[in-house]
Amino acid sequence: MSYTAIDYRVADGIATVTLSRPEKLNAFSYRMIDEVLDALDRIDADDDVRAVIFTGAGRAFSAGTDISDGTAVFTRDDEQDALRKPDGSFDYGAEAARDGGGLISLRLFDCLKPVIAAINGPAVGIGATITLAMDIRLASESAGIGFVFARRGIVPEAASAFFLPRLVGIGQALDWCYSGKVVPAAEAQAAGLVKAVYPPEDLLPAARAIAREIADRTAPVAVALIRQMMWRGLGYSHPMEAHRVDSRGILARGSSADVAEGVAAFLEKRPARFVDRVSTDMPDFFPWWSEPSYR
Questions:
Q1: Could you tell me the pTM of the whole model?
Q2: Structural domains counted in the chain
């Protein structure tokens, strides 16, 4: 896919996805949703990508859904018929009924590479909710984050009801979603939504420094497993579920070339040179959540 709504670049093991409709404050169109999904597929398939940064072009991260054409933006023109049953009622189970932000959040949830949000300016609506499924959020001092849905008569999407309360607690999540206010970066940091706040010129360098640490010092397969272990663990009802997965990981990776290299590098006081790749060397128990016992 060629990109017109995002910019996608890979350099030195870091993929940077830039939402790029600056004339619209990077408001989301269906084209942008499709391009972000495609970029995430490329990221997982590319062993040269070790970490990912999402940011926005111009002065905004994203102003949310592009509503310049009114309410029609909430459903694709070519899928109108698929949304209705023969009696005219909504078919809520239709594939066409799924919200675009949710498609991105769920794809991020499945991603095998660490994802950093560099929120360079206003991030509202889908521009805020898709960052919830990213691993680390950094913000510029000029950023504001808004779950503004109630002010537009609609509800939060992108699986926000799963992610936001887990990140900031149910009370804070409801406060922000009930009011629909735009939260300053400092308030978002105080609530734990944002890891750190930077002057605008320091934001991307800070994001790259975090990505660089991952790309240069860690084993790709271990990081992919850790990401899925942590995110999937949010839904566990008992620590035994985590213990079963931990044990599989220790057993499978303990005899791997990466672990032999990691131990040798430590003993020899040198940087490790990990050889296992996400595309070919994930352990045979992956993906464990597809097993009946984990459903």
A1: 0.93
A2: 2
